[in-house]
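Hello again, I could really use a second opinion on something today. For a while now I've been wondering how a particular protein folds. Please have a think about how the structure follows from the sequence. Here's the protein in full, and shout if anything looks odd to you:

***
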Amino acid sequence: MKPEGDGPFPAITGLGGSEGGDSSARRKAPQFLAEGYAVLGLPYYSPAWGDQPQQFPGLPRAFAEIPVDSAEVAKVWLSARGDIRADSIGIYGISKGAEYALLAGSKIEGFAAIAAIVPTDVVWEGWGTADGSRPSSFSWRGEALPFVQYQGMTEEFTNPTGPNGRPRLRLPHDKGRTANPEQAVAARIAVEAIDEPVLVAGGDADLAWNSGEMAQNIAERRAEAGLPTVSLVFTDAGHALSGTGAPSDQRAAADTAAQRVIWPATLAFFAENLKQ
């Protein structure tokens, strides 16, 4: 999608989360389009949840060794277009898409700005393989990236400990990281290798994974390297931080309040780094 006119336009590549497909990118695209950005949704994983057919049959059904290289292909394609400003291509990633976005920025030169909403500072274990193996979530140049294993994920789904009988996915993440500190060191995303500006936003009350602490880890490592970073961490907020702050009965009040800070900050971040 692109705005009306001939351009060239700054562009944002959208990366959704563990839901797969392109639903998240499609929800965000009109909001960025209205701000004058061309938008490329990059689906990278397409499961078949329940009775639903696979949305993109050519993509992986399992979240296993997803090739980060796909972001490089997308960037090259965008850069070659006459209606896109090749030096003004950013990434907006949410949750697992934030993990992907930071990996892409650490390995691929030339993205002008990266926004990682409810991010992680390490690569995590993937899921969904037919053989029951425990793969990395991501790969680079055909090689699986080091990752942190979950501990107790099956048990958490079998006997959920979260509110309203829902799994508290943060628990097997936290247990796995605590039990395997050497894995966490090897699996660190090299955020200090991203020369371009980065925005991270997370919540300390996140029950999916500890996005508040991991966003802070990212900000601290980048500060140590003297790199430009916007860090937004909210003590009471959870995982639903990628919206615009519109009222919703389906979302915690703390998440809505955090969105009302994060969304305008994200627009200002992209305007400063992609439009100037």
In short: The two ends are 21 Å apart (CA to CA). Residues 84 and 186 are 37 Å apart (CA to CA). Strands lie at 9-15, 38-41, 66-67, 84-94, 113-117, 138-140, 143-144, 198-203, 229-234.
